[in-house]
Structure formats: C-alpha cells, structure tokens
C-alpha cells in the first residue's frame, strides 16, 4: 500500500486545478446532503427569509464538502489501493495532502461561523457536530476498526435535515428527529449494497466493512432487516404532521420496493441485484424528501 502511494505521489502532474479542489468536496455526496438539508428548511414550521435560507443551504453544502476533503486527506493511503478511489485528487498526485487538509479545515470553520452569525447558533452547533462526527468519529475512529462503521457513522449523513430545521426554528424537535432516523436507518442497506459489489476493494484496503468481516450472507440478512424497519419509520412523517397522504402512499410503495430489492439481493448469487439496490436506494431517499417538500410547498403543510 505504501509503495503504491509513493509511486502515485511521484507521478504528480503539476499544480492542482479548481476542478481538483471541487472533487475534494465529494460533490455527488454533497448533493444529497444539501437536498435533505433544504428539506429540513422547507418542512420546518415558522418563517425564514429566503436569503438566510440560501445562506443556510450553502453553509450545509460547504460543511459537507469540507468534511469530504478532510476524509480524503486522512484516507489517502487506502484510497490509493481501491479501484473506486484511486483516481481521487490526492492518490493520483494532483493535490498535496497538506493542501487538502488546509482546504477542508478552512471551509469547516468558515461554514460554521457564517451559519452562526447569519442564521443562528443552534444550526451552527449542529453543523459543527456533523463535521466533527464525520471526521473524528466515523473517518478516524470507526471506519478502520469496526464493521459497524456505517451504522454508527451514518449519523453524520443524517444530521442535515435537523440542521435545516434548526435554521428556521432554532431548536431540535420530534419531526426533525424522525427525519434524522429516516436517513440513519437508510444508510446501512445503502452502503452495504455498495460494499457487496466493491468487496474486493475493501478487502485490499483492510477496511472492515460488513461483507468483509461478517460475510455476504450475514450482510444481506441485515440489509433486509433494515429495509423492513424503514417501513414504519418512513411513514412516521405523516403521523407527526409534516407530510400528507400522498407522501404516505409513496413511502409505502417505495418502501415495499426497497424490501423487494433486499430480498433479491439476499437470494442472488452475483452482484447485479446489489448494484441495482444501491442505485434504487438513492432514488428512494430523494423521492421521499421530494414528495414531502412538494406537499408542503403546494398544499401548505398538514400540521
């Protein structure tokens, strides 16, 4: 692993471009984080000036990107041996590790300070907690030590709707906690589907993902269990008044489809169902939050 990292470092192509630093922010991951953070703003009771709402969304985006940059700095050794990550800016030699770290830390501080000064310190505190949890708890502590890394570390990706909610209300309330739980419980089957068809990558890198440690069969059973638990949790926003009957119907249909994917993965002898489940899981979460926001914006909410 070290030899490959050194070789890649020696093959630097020159100064980093703006695109390289944008790639450090993990824009694809950031997009879903921003979307769920926006959902928290839209669904929260009360009013926030549109400009401040935009500031809050930008702070969530910058904070998420900063976490990704620090993650890439810390994981540069394992990124260099995984096919999925070997072309990232640091292992490919386009960005120096120190540049990535400085970039991530600077953006982290900036996002929290701007959120606090422009919006409120409750949202800023949750943003700081999210960044700290992703960097120190997930990346530095859990990821290389336990197959529960995604289960516990998934909390970092579940905070954005709570941050958005707090940007409007200045508080953490039960509906925002349910939105947190929805993403928290969605995360294991989503990432374990990826881990199933990228098992070789994680094995070479020594990352104890569930399929590497517990085996594929045990992982598939747990994925099915999580999708079943998600069914009532995904319906809960209707019962606390932040979603309407259209959402309830959509959540039931999508939830059963998610369970169906998990059943096919459980019975499969190849990677194709896992790849399909991974793709569907992204669509699943996107549609749930999109329908909630559409109902609130079009019909004015249900509380």
From TrEMBL:
Cross-referenced Gene3D superfamilies: UbiA prenyltransferase (1.10.357.140)
Functional pathway: Porphyrin-containing compound metabolism; heme O biosynthesis; heme O from protoheme: step 1/1
PANTHER family associated with the record: 4-HYDROXYBENZOATE SOLANESYLTRANSFERASE, PROTOHEME IX FARNESYLTRANSFERASE, MITOCHONDRIAL
GO molecular function: protoheme IX farnesyltransferase activity
Annotated organism of origin: Azospirillum lipoferum (strain 4B)
Pfam families per the UniProt record, alphabetical: UbiA (PF01040)
Family: Belongs to the UbiA prenyltransferase family. Protoheme IX farnesyltransferase subfamily.
CDD domains registered for this protein in UniProt: PT_UbiA_Cox10
Function: Converts heme B (protoheme IX) to heme O by substitution of the vinyl group on carbon 2 of heme B porphyrin ring with a hydroxyethyl farnesyl side group.
Catalytic activity: heme b + (2E,6E)-farnesyl diphosphate + H2O = Fe(II)-heme o + diphosphate
Gene, per the UniProt record: coxE
Keywords recorded for this protein, A-Z: Cell inner membrane, Cell membrane, Heme biosynthesis, Membrane, Transferase, Transmembrane, Transmembrane helix
Protein name from the UniProt record: Protoheme IX farnesyltransferase
